[in-house]
Specification:
alpha+beta; nine-stranded mixed beta sheet; eight-stranded antiparallel beta sheet; 9 helices; about 25% helix; about 25% strand; globular; binds 4'-deoxy-4'-aminopyridoxal-5'-phosphate
Length: about 325
Amino acid sequence: MPLKPVPYIWMNGRFVRWHQAKIHVLSHVVHYGSSWFEGIRAYKTRRGTAIFRLHDHLRRLERSLRMYYTEMPYTVEELERVCVEVVRRNRLEQCYIRPIVYRGYGDLGVNPMDCPVEVAVAAWEWGAYLGSEAATRGVDVCVSSWQRIASNTMPAMAKAGGNYLNSQLVRIESVRHGYDEGISLDIFGMVSEGSGENVFVVMDGVLYTPPLSASILPGVTRHTVITFAREEGIPVVESSIPRGMLYAADELFFTGTAAEITPIRSVDGVVVGNGGVGPITRRLQERFYQVVRDGEDPYGWLTFVPPAPRRTRAARVAPEATNLRRR
Ligand code: PMP
């Protein structure tokens, strides 16, 4: 899906026009993948536009940086305000929000520590990541021939730009072979995750998902689903999942900010369960929609976005900065 520009992107403390949000070609990030980012969704709930689990996403961003000996130039609370402002100023009712921290222009040695740490937050409209019918009909996946990065090569727990070279291989291969998405195994042969999603397996009423030690990203949606399942009285087991369980499962689904809760219909051509959306998957989807569509918020997961500013000439010509100082 091509990007649909909106008026503004926030970059290093101020709002700039979408097409002016540029970096130098010799920025460290371009050459060595030195970036850390988040993917967050804002929903048009019955109670207004709300960002889902904003705080938890930005906490993960802070941790991703820490794994690379880097401190965020702004606090989580400041970036929360920036994200809200990006949605508000661009008058987006529902959107995907992309905060990104990256090493900029300075030095092109591998060591990034002398390059500036820069921050941008963009938002745009983004529909269903795995297709418009994915949530109701499910997707067809394969087990990738590409393994997930090992935890002693790069931290899979960090949402770092460089990790997505591994994800790209998984995704490209799966699409080339006619599937919607690929699931990778970790280097020990156990189920890890999709190229941009965590994986859940249902067998005999128990919900299984791989542990952090299986080179997964600690997904915010994964945590959301585990919370719902425990409340519903569904036993949740975080344990190594052998590949065979993918074919034997009663139900399988992906979780992710982009993919939300997407049922998996087949793995390597083997139909999962009876091929439809299973009852546990459906129940968890319903619980998810109660929050992001109905705006029910017993967990404090929604950050509501105040109405957009009135259209004034000043706002059009000179979008004001948000007055933030770097730490
Ligand atoms: N794994 C990977 C590799 C991802 O890119 C994502 C998407 N951020 C996820 C899992 C799911 O994480 P979340 O639910 O926080 O979006």
